[in-house]
Amino acid sequence: MTQLLYVSTSNPSGAKIDLPKIVEQSRHNNALDGVSGLLWSDGKRFLQVLEGPAESVSTTFDRIKGDTRHHAIVVLHQRAITEREFGTWTMAQRRADDTADDFDAKMQRLLRNASDTVRGTFLGLIAARA
Ligand SMILES: Cc1cc2nc3c(=O)[nH]c(=O)nc-3n(C[C@H](O)[C@H](O)[C@H](O)COP(=O)(O)O)c2cc1C
């Protein structure tokens, strides 16, 4: 299996990002394709880890790269894994009533099985944007 971590920026010239729509599409496709992982966004930037069979991750990422809703896509990390670090695919969003501590606890939970690299990248980017 492969694990891939990338960062991107929402397209300023594109339509307003409809996160629920992206989540719905992703949840559906990723379940079919055996892709698990985590997507974080603050509405302007995205950080996503995808993992699963190499072929599935590659076709999913090809679709994501071609999506005009975001740009400046940079792969931060890609490696072979023997076990999944994320059992399912999910989106991490800070709700309006989440305190910084609530959201931090939520992220720690979502990242509990992640490698140091993946956990560090998520927590580092989120802290930098807080
Ligand atoms: C930031 C971002 C993350 C996305 N993540 C996924 C994903 O994990 N899986 C997926 O199938 N599509 C994802 N998409 C959507 C794809 O780019 C594409 O629109 C979608 O897969 C097309 O699916 P459909 O042919 O079923 O409509 C993402 C899009 C964006 C902008």
From TrEMBL:
Gene3D superfamilies linked to this entry:
3.30.70.100
Identify the SUPFAM superfamilies for this entry. Answer: Acylphosphatase/BLUF domain-like
Domain BLUF residue range list: 1-92
MF (Gene Ontology): blue light photoreceptor activity; FAD binding
The organism's taxonomy opens as: Bacteria, Pseudomonadati, Pseudomonadota, Alphaproteobacteria, Sphingomonadales
Coiled-coil residues are none
This protein is called what?
Answer: BLUF domain-containing protein
One Pfam entry name: BLUF
Q: Give the source's domain of life in one word.
A: Bacteria
InterPro entries recorded: Acylphosphatase-like_dom_sf, BLUF_domain
